[in-house]
Write a structure and sequence with these properties.
two-stranded antiparallel sheet, five-stranded mixed beta sheet, alpha/beta, single chain, 185 residues
């Protein structure tokens, strides 16, 4: 960078946006939405601490699992194509598993995502199984677990913590995972 004093002066004139210039308050909107449906006030998952366990071996020798929130295609559930509108009918409510050697038909119409800037035609954008296979082939990671798993997005903390998370953990342990890549869609 040059020592041009005008460049330095122009950088020092950066100002904060006005106090009322804020992003969409999606947390407040979500809370109001659920209250309008008759639910008690929505409480966001927010923890004061997160457990961390260092990987016990080099990544090049580790067995890696994959968890996704993408849903298996359900022909009877309406439009689930790459540019489909939000489709709550395409949700799934129990953990599922499939072989990492399969070619799954997974979709994301059941979740709210940025439908303008996301590339839903590219399965790898929200389900990087092919990239994980490449990482194994290149020696970057040791191996994949025999199955990948689907985590439901039904927005219930209780069900997520008491049912889905424990089932996902059980399956990942059964598969011998050393670490897991969680890809929310």
């Amino acid at each position: 960078m040059s020592g041009d004093p005008t460049a330095v002066a122009s950088r020092s004139k950066i100002e904060f946006a006005p106090e009322d210039d804020v992003p969409i308050r999606y947390m407040d909107r979500t809370r109001e939405y659920y209250q309008a449906l008759g639910f008690s006030p929505y409480r966001w998952a927010h923890f004061t601490d997160a457990p961390f366990t260092p990987l016990g071996k080099p990544l090049a020798r580790a067995r890696i699992g994959l968890i996704t929130t993408a849903a298996p295609f359900q022909p009877e559930a309406g439009d689930q194509g790459p540019r489909a509108a939000y489709n709550a009918g395409a949700k799934f409510y129990t953990v599922y598993s499939a072989s990492v050697d399969s070619k799954p038909d997974l979709r994301i119409s059941h979740v709210g995502y940025d439908r303008t800037n996301t590339v839903p035609e590219d399965l790898g954008a929200y389900f990087p199984l092919a990239r994980l296979h490449e990482a194994v082939a290149s020696g970057r990671i040791g191996s994949l677990t025999p199955r990948f798993h689907g985590a439901p997005t039904n927005r219930s903390h209780r069900v997520t913590l008491e049912t889905d998370a424990s089932e996902l953990l059980r399956r990942c342990q059964e598969d011998g995972a050393d670490a897991v890549v969680l890809v929310p869609s």
